[in-house]
């Protein structure tokens, strides 16, 4: 009698009855875990496929693509690693989840497909194909080995000035390519910059862009779309007034994060982050990275000017200013191989989306300088992991005590109390010891 795993493996078409019988005969047991491990080791199955088959799921294809692994959660849906069954080419498949298949999300997804189909730049993730399998809509893009910039920094710490300049300058050239086509990304952040093991950067999720000359055709026009940690002030105040300069502000925030390991305004919820983007400046980058040069810091400041008219004018200019610090290449450490969490099935999405309105109020024109600390005790409250504006989570997910540096102005309750009792006891001990010694000396001479 077949088990759930064996029946699912055969019904899926990934393993033939002859192959299954051969594996069972080889290991001499009917243990599903051992059979699965043998099939994975032989290359007939991947770890992700084995996980799905154990649960009884047999559909591991989308059109002509065979799903081999789960990459992660994107702004529009889940992303899977796949291979074309005829061509054998590895690719990434972005799936619009069934429960989010509304008219609005389908319009957004269709727009993303059409936009990416026309992109062809070495610094932008290319689109290969798009299709529909039953009720599931999907977009196929090139598979970029490596990791995204956010994971790279969280795993290995901030990048050096030279390595950060190389990655961000390449991302800037990818953005300039999009800007030249009339596109605005609107969600530039470390998670949307992919970095290969050789240190080559590509911008992903261009599909969240809107035609800068045709915002009325965008189903998300007039809404704040992006991540609170990287939103530009003008994007918060008037989402319809965004342009290429908004991407440059977000790229400046990304560069700040890349060299410091901190988002510009850590802690607080999305609304407070939006308010600080409009009214405040972050801590000086050298507070976290003392080796940064003054010219490099000035470049970050010029990218993060509150007033778009005072910001660096183009992404090409950003790349040119960073060029003097760029190394030719650098090696990205491979991720440590470890047992992975069970990945969700195709078309399922456990993530939650919610939005919050941006804070209104006048913008304070940036001066190109950085404040020495956050203003107000309310900004030093506990962080809100995963805070979102629109679709995408925030990067400030660490507890506030770890996410912010030790600063003399921090609240008294976060400081280690001064050991007054210990010092008083020590002084009393010294005085009593001295008095005792004097008394003993006096008695000695009296007896003499």
Structural features:
single chain; 448 residues; alpha+beta; Phosphorylase Kinase, domain 1; Transferase(Phosphotransferase), domain 1; flat; protein serine/threonine kinase activity
Question: How would you summarize what this structure contains?
Answer:
This protein is 37% helix and 12% strand. With 448 residues, the chain is α+β, with helices and mostly antiparallel strands. Strand 1 (61-62) and strand 2 form a beta hairpin.
Overview of the structural elements:
InterPro entries: Kinase-like_dom_sf, Prot_kinase_dom, Protein_kinase_ATP_BS, Ser/Thr_kinase_AS. Pfam families: Pkinase (PF00069). Residues 342-400 are annotated as: Disordered. The protein has 448 residues and is α+β, with helices and mostly antiparallel strands. The protein has three domains: 1-59; 63-143, Phosphorylase Kinase, domain 1 (2-Layer Sandwich); 147-325, Transferase(Phosphotransferase), domain 1 (Orthogonal Bundle), CATH 1.10.510.10. 37% of the residues lie in helices and 12% in strands. The chain is built from 14 helices and 13 strands. It has helices at 4-12, 17-27, 32-42, 47-54, 103-117, 149-156, 161-180, 233-237, 244-260, 270-279, 294-303, 315-322, 400-403, 420-447; strands at residues 61-62, 65-73, 78-84, 90-96, 127-133, 136-142, 147-148, 183-184, 193-195, 201-203, 210-211, 388-389, 392-393. The strands form four sheets. The protein has a six-stranded antiparallel β-sheet with strand order 1-2-3-4-6-5, covered by helices on one side. Strands 7-9-10 form a three-stranded antiparallel β-sheet. Helix 9 runs antiparallel to helix 11 (294-303). The protein is flat and about 110 Å long. The termini are far apart. Mean pLDDT is 78; it is low at 210-216, 349-369 and 371-415.
